[in-house]
Amino acid sequence: MADVAKLAGVSHQTVSRVLNDHPKVRKETRARVLRAITALGYRRNLTARALVTRRSHRLGVVSFDTILYGPASTVHGIERAAREAGYFVSIMSLRTIDRAGVNEAIGHLAEQGVDGVVVVAPQRAAAQALADLPPGLPAVAVEGRHEGEVAVVSVDQREGARHATAHLLALGHDTVWHVSGPDDWLEAEGRQEGWRAALAAAGREIPEVLAGDWTPRSGYRAGRVLAARVAEVTAVFVANDQMALGLLRAFSEAGVRVPEQVSVVGFDDIPEAAYFTPALTTVRQDFGEVGRLSIGLLLKQIESSGASGHDHLIVPPRFVIRDSTGRARSALPY
């Protein structure tokens, strides 16, 4: 820092202000310091900085099964938001989801001296493990339950599913079938609740749920079951786009036309959804906003050195209508 100050012709305090983006630095002075930093290849000593500030400027993230689009996109949104806020990120990705594994991951991150942790907690076991957080460690749960002393950021899964189901009913379908996610996922639970609520509010029959596991293979199996009952099935809400892809494949093989015979809605709006055959109507989740809000809540705790367990921020989903939904057969003019 002294070398930068000498080259720029300023004090080391001014260099510090520029590095910390202090507003009370003249534009031309800031430019001169930045040129000196570039010329000298200066990099801050983060270890020395941590000793002075008592902060590592490193955050921990605990996640699960990052092959899936939702969790992977969530982690990417969190990592990007943390980087924009000037923090490094250490990620612990777990293969098995149990309370002991989550606690071990959080403990490992705490030993590394992270300033706080974000736990992507879409499963019950992960949500339960948040009760065992080390005292005083700032933490935010993403897609967890708003219980106890942990702040939560979540997409309104229930509302997204309700909107999707209501859209299909508005197209004249008597009822809507559902291919669900795994029982232990809170997101799957919320989407099923929204589907049931929409049908109940409209006074419609609630069909049996076909259980899936988020994979196209499970959607394909459900699609074969529903294709065999195409005389009574006219609309399906699928709990994620990957399962919807498998379901569309099964329908195509069985000669079931979408949306002429059966309308299909997915959830997530993966990048490929617009290129399915037909293009998939779905519910879009704003993972970038989830990341921004979760990091914002975490930094709020770090800066105030206090708990923010009563914070629960909900991100609204967006419904995207494409070609896989249409008027019910009974509602079409003849």
Automatic annotation (TrEMBL):
Keyword DNA-binding included in the entry's annotation: yes
Spans through the membrane: none
Pfam families cross-referenced by the UniProt entry: LacI (PF00356), Peripla_BP_3 (PF13377)
Xref: SMART domains: HTH_LACI
Molecular functions (GO terms): DNA binding
ATP-binding recorded as keyword: no
Superkingdom, taxonomy of origin: Bacteria
CDD domains in UniProt: HTH_LacI, PBP1_LacI
PANTHER family the UniProt entry points to: HTH-TYPE TRANSCRIPTIONAL REGULATOR GALS, LACI-RELATED TRANSCRIPTIONAL REPRESSOR
Protein known as: LacI family DNA-binding transcriptional regulator
Protein source organism: Nonomuraea composti
